[in-house]
């Protein structure tokens, strides 16, 4: 079994240990044991990271695409070799079951391999002009990127934040979540071991507001990439706007799920229940607001409840565990508040609705039905293991409810009716829509939202495109 490593930052290729810096205590959410003390950056550390990123950009923007591809492919190979160790570390830090953490590593492997191809397909064009004149349009890397990754996918999020800028020829300063630092360090280490020049990518930790203000105030940084809550995203977007930095914002959601009576209910439940409780519901694309056509509503709620009650909960390192603890003590606190408010306002509780045990941040899989619209949980992303079920009568009502909130990240619909499928595809305001499937991503597919869920995409060709700027050169 992999031991938990000593913690450090990586600045200009150097491991920066705590020394006399402030530290953050990293805790195992399953046991509440201390895993390590994470050094927090001082302004001088951030300045050093900025200087390295400036130098790294000059190096990497001129590196041939084949060299960038070789680094990404090499890192993918190393991540594949190190998958078990890295996944164990992620489970210790974040709590999710080991097999889920391993899938995250493999998602990075797929993404780095995809980007290795994509970075060799950054094309420009030549315009038709009179003889003697030449006009070209080229794509150039935007510049050093400040990237902020949250704790819920401790391997996947840093992989996204590092992969796209590196493919595009940018340098990057990554501040991933202080709660799960060793996973991100493992991803960056694989890139460095695969030959990434040391100046190109840095990993810093700190007091989030101090780090983001410092980095975003620097003219060296030309792009902000943030994944996290809408409230923090709006704050950071304002800071970025002061210097007209580009932004990719992957923010919160409140995933609507429309289930029509013509669908195979058992198949739907067998798909959506594991999706709901994946990573204890702490997933931005989690299915959340279940809207069920009234004829099958009762059967859906009872089938959901039965499956939720049967889930095996425990330490994510133990065999057969299907749901681990929540990642930090803020989440069960939030569940208690949101679910208490929903019950007070008339929602029916079918299972869960309580913490489990007195050690670790566990919260039971919870099913609520008839949840009134005015309950806070119907309007605020719960980010936890709770399904909110309500019935609908007409397609119009279901679509209206799906679009009611200012969020638009992921949405799901289950119906066999082809005409209805087309209508839903056109009318649901969302960045990603799954019709008769919960698989809404992939290395080759854009991942991102609309409205308050943010703008810009990660993954797919769009992920690299988001790190490029366009230049037109006209020669007479
Ligand atoms: P939070 O809003 O305080 O933090 C969310 C993330 O942003 C964390 O990773 C945090 O380190 C970072 N952050 C916070 N303030 C920052 C700042 N000033 N500068 C830079 N980064 C900053 O809340 P939290 O308790 O960590 O998470 C709760 C909520 O965040 C959830 O309810 C969910 O809505 C959202 N969230 C979304 C995602 C996602 O994948 N979109 C991931 C994690 C959390």
Automatic annotation (TrEMBL):
One of its GO terms (molecular function) is succinate-semialdehyde dehydrogenase (NAD+) activity. It comes from Hyphococcus luteus. Signal peptide: none annotated. This is NAD-dependent succinate-semialdehyde dehydrogenase. SUPFAM superfamilies: ALDH-like. Belongs to the aldehyde dehydrogenase family. Pfam families: Aldedh. Residues 20-473 form the Aldehyde dehydrogenase domain. InterPro entries: Ald_DH/histidinol_DH, Ald_DH_C, Ald_DH_N, Aldehyde_DH_dom, Aldehyde_DH_Superfamily. GO terms for biological process: gamma-aminobutyric acid catabolic process. Keywords: Oxidoreductase. It comes from the Bacteria.
